[in-house]
Amino acid sequence: MRGRPAHPRITRLVAFCLCFMTFIQNAGASFAPLAVGARPSGMGEAFSAIADDVYSLYYNPAGLAQLARPELGAYYSRLFVGLSDGSNISQSFFGYGHPLGPSAVHGSLGIDYLALNLSGLYQEQTFGLSYAYRFFEKWNIGGSIKLLKKTIGSDDPAIANAIDSTTGSPFLTGQSDPLSSSGPSKSAPAIDLGTQYQFLPHYWIAAVMRNLNSPNMAISSSDSDPAPAYFTIGIARKMFDSAVGVDVSQYKTTQNNLRVNFGGEKWIDAVGLRAGLAFGTQNYSSGSFGASYRFANFQLDYAMSYPIQGVQGTFGNQQFSLTARFGKPPQTTIETELIEERKKRLRAEMQAIEIQNERDHLKEEIERLTQSVPEKPPQIEENKSLTNTLETSLQETEEALKKGVSKTKEERQFLITYEDALNNYLGMRRSGSTEVERLAKIQTIVKDFGSSSIDILPAKRELEALDSEVRKEKGDYKLSMSFYETLVKRGASMDDRRKMLDRIIKKYKPMGLDTSSAEKESLIIEKKQN
Fold first, then answer.
1. Fewer CB within 10 Å: N-end or C-end of the chain?
2. CA–CA separation, 271 vs 290, rounded Å?
3. HSE on the CB side for 192, CA within 13 Å?
4. Is 334 among the domain residues?
5. Domain limits for position 495
6. How many structural domains compose the chain?
């Protein structure tokens, strides 16, 4: 059969194997890491610490804990578009994540399906079930149980057999391909574990182990083809409208492999832009860019990744994702912070208004208590009834002296002294003496003549009225100073404080009250202002 042209199916299978192995940089293993999701791919797959959507099911199951509402994601990719043999190598993904309870208080569940295909010749499938939970508001921990399945050819033995390159018929009709003695497919379970930790506001670190048990995916029972265990650590800075991350990954196939991924995204209203770069051992390097558009509860993503080394002469890998979110959009952390900040500002403004109103009220009260401040010492308005009574008492005393009513010289002298005292007091009233001074004088009169036979009832009434008035003025002064102290606590300005003190001093000092506390405070303010 030498010299016969190769059958198209063999050509496509060989082309796929060469391209696929070149893409993963000679990894030599099934289920080698490939990009999943246009959003992660657009940012160079630096996604382990950023993961917060349905594509967390592939990159880091811990990211499911960040789901605020149910998400359904679909992804399709054409690998190496433009291969000369016309091969159609594709990858597809379907996933669903569901938070349990408000804000995923009971964690989040997810299921996903991933397939890599060269139709009829080769297929890798992954079925996954995942769960994630948030601990202490900062830790996200998640895990996945997966079923990996690899298929070569078809389940039909006539198709799965070795193919005659001339006729396309199997060499051994009705018999299994000797290279697939155990059947054309192999299935095995695999486990993923992941965690995320927010160590600072907006900063996250992550650690992920994919295919932790590294199951053997060789078709033949005598061969070994372990799915590579893939270990990743990552760090990211996530803001309301942007994210940037770095991942470092290690996995082993026929030899150790190391990859470093950089990438980020920026949202401008409903449009997202992304770019990324990845490089590693065995001459691995790749660049990518992408974009998104959000509308209603949907998000459409596109990305293109291009191998800088390796497969050449293609249009790279073209990738598309559609994500649907269900339910009412929750408030984001930033939105919540902004709302709280707005509430605090409104509370502060309301408190400031209340304080200002209280200050205004206090100033009004002080002004009321200190109103009608005269420029000159006050002429106290006389109580006409009491004045008349005192003058009448004085006249009666004078008449008694003229008529000689008193029987002794001592009594006559006593009446004269009382008469002089009353004249002195009435003179103080007319001259505008302070109420405190007059109170002291009338108290002396009542004390000196209270035990005599002279009728001093008018003087006693004057004493009671004057004592009540002085007590009221002292109370008003204390109340004014109390209002002033409250005004100071409410943040009154130096000018307002000094004005209030000047009014208090001007009102109560001429009355004879002790205003030393107000004068001392006014002096302190004056020194501060100077």
1. C
2. 11
3. 31
4. no
5. 339-529
6. 2
Q: List, in sequence order, every residue forming a beta bridge with 449; answer none if it has no partner.
A: none
CA-based end-to-end distance of the chain? 112
- Domain end marker among 328, 360, 376: 328
- Whole-angstrom distance, CA of residue 196 vs CA of residue 139: 6
Q: Are residues 35 and 106 in the same domain?
A: yes
317, burial (CB in 10 Å: exposed 0-12, middle 13-18, buried 19+): buried
Phi-psi region of 455 (alpha: psi -120 to 50; beta: other; left: phi over 0): beta
Tokens found for residue 180: 């697939």
Q: Tell me: do 301 and 425 sit in the same domain.
A: no
Whether residue 387 has pLDDT greater than 50: yes
Pair (170, 130) in one structural domain: yes
Highest mean pLDDT among 176-180, 388-392, 479-483: 479-483
Q: At CB < 8 A and 24+ separation, what contacts does 159-165 make?
A: 159/120, 160/184, 163/7, 163/9, 163/10, 164/1, 164/7, 165/1, 165/4, 165/5, 165/6, 165/7, 165/10
Share of the chain above pLDDT 90, in %: 34
Residue 89 located in a structural domain:
yes
In whole angstroms, give the CA distance from residue 70 to residue 434.
84
Same domain, 236 and 270: yes
**d(C-alpha 220, C-alpha 225), whole Å:** 9
Q: Do the Cβ atoms of 100 and 107 come closer than 8 Å?
A: yes
Domain assignment of residue 361, yes or no: yes
What are phi and psi for residue 354, nearest 5 degrees? -60, -40
Q: Are residues 98 and 208 in the same domain?
A: yes
- Distance between CA 32 and CA 228 in Å, rounded? 6
- Same domain for 247 and 158, yes or no, is yes
pLDDT number for residue 511: 80
Question: What is the predicted pLDDT for the residue at 329?
Answer: 76
Is residue 366 one of the residues assigned to a domain?
yes
Q: Are 459 and 445 in contact (CB under 8 A)?
A: yes
Query: Which residues of 168-255 form beta strands (DSSP E)?
Result: 185-200, 203-210, 230-238, 242-252
Structural domain ending residue among the three candidates 328, 355, 378 = 328
Predicted model pTM: 0.59
Rg of the Cα trace of the chain? 49
Do 271 and 409 lie in one domain? The reply is no
Residue of 417 and 53 predicted with greater confidence: 53
Residue 332 CA: distances (Å) to CA of 293, 340, 346 = 18, 12, 21
pLDDT above 90 (res 322):
yes
- Using the predicted structure, report yes or no on whether residue 136 has a pLDDT greater than 90: no
Question: What pLDDT is stored for residue 390 in this prediction?
Answer: 61
